[in-house]
């Protein structure tokens, strides 16, 4: 029973960890209608910021979280209009061109990091790294709890922002119909830049947490991109709330399969779940977008 | 004001084209002839210069390049009292075996290399072997440790490092023997990719021979989260946890174990622990982790090119800023094997197909002493063409440094066992 409860806890925490970098991805897709392959690149950049702040300044890695938001949010804000232009260009298949652009951006980020910082694996030291709390028979890894709390807070914050503010209304309107939103006076171009900046900032913040939980090197980005994509498809592309639910579901499935069936079957179980959901409910588990 | 363009006129372009044509037809062959007079040996390095194994890939490249620089500084490889420099050509397998095979073919066909130096991963090595066979180009592999590389009985491939099935089990036996109180149980984790999986199998089979009870044997995907498997193993409370994997999963095993407050009495890994990046990434948490090494800078071997093992280590450290591990050393030693074989063969560059076949036979007959240790390839059996001469040393990270702790005759410090609780 103890192992069962520990496995459930592990699964929920893995889900929380995955959700951190998937929520922004969903937001960007909802508004820009672009599957952003660069998501893993933003995660890794956040991780490196955490590592270099901790190693260079001797501060706690978590202090990099707000800085990651501001820094990479600003960079994302500058990249957003480029992506918007490509996505809305009059060339044939602009959605594929946008996909190629994000793939190129990911390759550029990966190569740039490799050239600038080398290929060694680093870790982001934080006050919570390696710390755990004993709750009855359970061991609760605190850094993962921090990631799960972060994911819930970001999802909650975005929910309030999207459904309780005028700007959120504009974002949702744009996600639903760009033309109608533009006719209502929404500056789509600026909104897209803001949303991409928000997404890049949130994802880089998640990257600091990933660097603290796992480790960071330029090559791990692809893994995050794939997981973000799996979760997004399971959630229904564009659904922020669905991302949280889907990530938790995948986390629990991975944990139970790894513990009770065998770790080598965990990815198989994840793919099987994805396949089944696409078969039964192609719009994702919550059946709606933003 | 003149309306004539000062830039390109048709006459200029035609004139320029005529000069370029003349240079192309007359000048370039002349240059080629001039180059052909300075004959060099061409060596191709296939390794992971991008992708998930980039750390190890660059480490192997550093080793091969160290040899090339050292031998070129002496004037080159000696053949029939003459010296011929070595040109190195790189091929990136992008951490993907199929791409490695393509890279090998390109090096052989386009760059016309005389010899190949093998990839970082065993998976790529296995993929490149048929290409070596097809074009009859010998390959010396300074990194591959999977027994499957040698079970395939590759005619043209030779391995410097003993296969992991010979080293993992032996080291575990040493650890079990040194443990006090004596270890009784073990859990084994292997990352589900060729080398790591076979390391896990080596630990598992070695555990049985060492009289340890295997309470869990888990294969994990390289990209998977380790929390569930560590929780499961923690519940079984084994004395020893053994892990087969490359750098990043090894780091994550330690981080995940600490986050779950699980500390076995001994944690043994194979490759990666000896790389200084491992201890740097984990800082104090790396302390106590054991590993297996077939070479350390402290071993008492030497040769004419690199000098002693310590001198080699200093040379490598000066070059890269890192103390070399056994893979980097084995890669550098690969060049020594080529130099020795081609010297005995007595064939000058460029080697013909017949020369390369004869070179393969000369490499197979290698029996030399190097700073890395003795090198002599098996002529039959499951380790065909692998150098199983080096004796594995059990190492442990103590105070951030890699020290030999067993067997007793090689030990520089006592094994810390059982490991203290996490700080």
From TrEMBL, chain A:
One of its GO terms (biological process) is amino acid transport. GO terms for molecular function: transmembrane transporter activity. GO terms for cellular component: plasma membrane. InterPro entries: ABC_transp_permease, BCAA_transport_permease. The chain crosses the membrane at residues 12-32, 39-57, 63-84, 96-119, 139-163, 193-214, 226-253, 265-286. Keywords: Amino-acid transport, Cell membrane, Membrane, Transmembrane, Transmembrane helix, Transport. The keyword Cytoplasm does not apply. Its main location: membrane. It is a multi-pass membrane protein. It holds the Pfam family BPD_transp_2. It comes from the Bacteria. It is found in: Cell membrane. Belongs to the binding-protein-dependent transport system permease family. LivHM subfamily. This is Branched-chain amino acid ABC transporter permease. It comes from Mesorhizobium tamadayense.
Automatic annotation (TrEMBL), chain B:
Pfam families: Peripla_BP_6. InterPro entries: BCAA_transport, Leu-bd, Peripla_BP_I, TAT_signal. SUPFAM superfamilies: Periplasmic binding protein-like I (SSF53822). Residues 41-387 form the Leucine-binding protein domain. The keyword Cell division does not apply. CDD domains: PBP1_ABC_ligand_binding-like. One of its GO terms (biological process) is amino acid transport. The keyword Cell division does not apply. Keywords: Amino-acid transport, Signal, Transport. Gene3D superfamilies: 3.40.50.2300. Coiled coil: none annotated. Belongs to the leucine-binding protein family. This is ABC transporter substrate-binding protein. It comes from Mesorhizobium tamadayense.
């Amino acid at each position: 029973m103890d192992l069962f409860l520990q496995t459930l806890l592990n699964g929920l925490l893995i889900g929380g960890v995955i959700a951190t970098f998937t929520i922004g991805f969903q937001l960007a897709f909802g508004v820009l209608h672009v599957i952003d392959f660069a998501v893993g690149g933003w995660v890794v950049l956040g991780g490196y910021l955490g590592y270099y702040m901790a190693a260079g300044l001797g501060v706690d890695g978590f202090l990099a979280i707000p800085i990651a938001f501001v820094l990479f949010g600003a960079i994302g804000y500058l990249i957003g209009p480029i992506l918007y232009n490509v996505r809305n260009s009059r060339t044939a298949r602009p959605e594929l061109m946008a996909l190629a652009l994000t793939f190129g951006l990911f390759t550029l980020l990966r190569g740039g990091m490799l050239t600038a910082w080398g290929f060694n694996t680093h870790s982001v030291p934080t006050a919570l790294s390696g710390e755990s709390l004993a709750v009855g028979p359970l061991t609760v890894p605190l850094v993962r709890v921090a990631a799960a709390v972060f994911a819930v807070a970001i999802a909650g914050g975005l929910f309030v922002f999207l459904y309780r503010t005028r700007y959120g209304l504009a974002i949702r309107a744009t996600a639903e119909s760009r033309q109608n939103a533009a006719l209502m006076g929404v500056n789509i171009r600026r909104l897209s830049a803001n949303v991409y900046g928000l997404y890049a900032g949130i994802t880089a913040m998640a990257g600091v947490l990933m660097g603290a939980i796992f480790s960071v090197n330029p090559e791990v980005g692809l893994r995050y991109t794939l997981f973000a994509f799996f979760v997004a498809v399971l959630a229904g592309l564009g659904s922020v709330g669905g991302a949280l639910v889907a990530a938790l579901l995948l986390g629990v499935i991975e944990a139970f399969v790894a513990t009770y069936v065998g770790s080598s079957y965990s990815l198989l179980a994840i793919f099987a779940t994805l396949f089944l959901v696409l078969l039964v409910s192609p719009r994702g588990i919550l059946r709606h977008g933003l | 004001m003149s309306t004539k363009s000062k830039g390109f006129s048709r006459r200029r372009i035609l004139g320029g084209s005529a000069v370029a044509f003349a240079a192309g037809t007359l000048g370039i062959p002349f240059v080629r002839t001039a180059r052909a007079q300075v004959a060099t040996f061409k060596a191709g390095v296939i390794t992971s210069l991008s992708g998930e194994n980039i750390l190890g890939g660059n480490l192997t490249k550093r080793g091969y390049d160290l040899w090339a620089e050292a031998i070129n500084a002496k004037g080159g490889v000696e053949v029939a009292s003459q010296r011929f420099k070595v040109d190195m050509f790189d091929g990136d397998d992008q951490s993907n075996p199929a791409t490695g095979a393509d890279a090998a073919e390109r090096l052989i066909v386009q760059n016309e290399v005389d010899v190949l130096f093998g990839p970082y991963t065993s998976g790529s090595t296995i993929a490149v072997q048929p290409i070596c066979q097809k074009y009859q180009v010998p390959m010396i592999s300074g990194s591959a440790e999977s027994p499957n590389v040698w079970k395939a009985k590759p005619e043209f491939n030779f391995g410097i490092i003993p296969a992991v099935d010979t080293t993992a089990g032996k080291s575990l036996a040493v650890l079990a023997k040194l443990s006090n109180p004596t270890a009784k149980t073990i859990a084994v984790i292997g990352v589900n990719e060729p080398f790591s999986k076979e390391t896990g199998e080596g630990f598992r089979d070695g555990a049985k021979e060492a009289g340890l009870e295997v309470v869990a044997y888990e294969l994990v995907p390289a990209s998977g989260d380790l929390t569930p498997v560590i929780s499961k193993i923690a519940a079984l409370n084994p004395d020893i946890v053994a892990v087969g994997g490359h750098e990043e999963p090894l780091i994550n095993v330690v981080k995940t174990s600490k986050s779950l407050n699980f500390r076995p009495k001994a944690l043994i890994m194979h490759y990666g622990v000896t790389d200084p990046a491992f201890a740097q990434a984990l800082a104090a948490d790396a302390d106590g982790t054991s590993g297996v090494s077939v070479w350390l800078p402290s071993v008492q071997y030497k040769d004419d090119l690199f000098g002693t093992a310590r001198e080699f280590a200093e040379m490598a450290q000066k070059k890269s800023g890192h103390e070399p591990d056994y893979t980097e050393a084995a890669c550098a030693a690969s060049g020594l094997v080529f130099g020795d074989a081609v010297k005995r063969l007595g064939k000058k560059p460029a080697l013909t197909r017949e020369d390369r076949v004869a070179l393969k036979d000369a490499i197979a007959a290698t029996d030399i002493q190097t700073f890395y240790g003795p090198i002599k390839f098996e002529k039959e059996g499951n380790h065909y063409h692998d150098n199983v001469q080096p004796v594995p040393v059990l190492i442990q990270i103590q105070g951030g440094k890699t020290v030999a702790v067993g067997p007793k005759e090689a030990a520089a410090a006592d094994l810390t066992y059982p490991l203290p609780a996490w700080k």
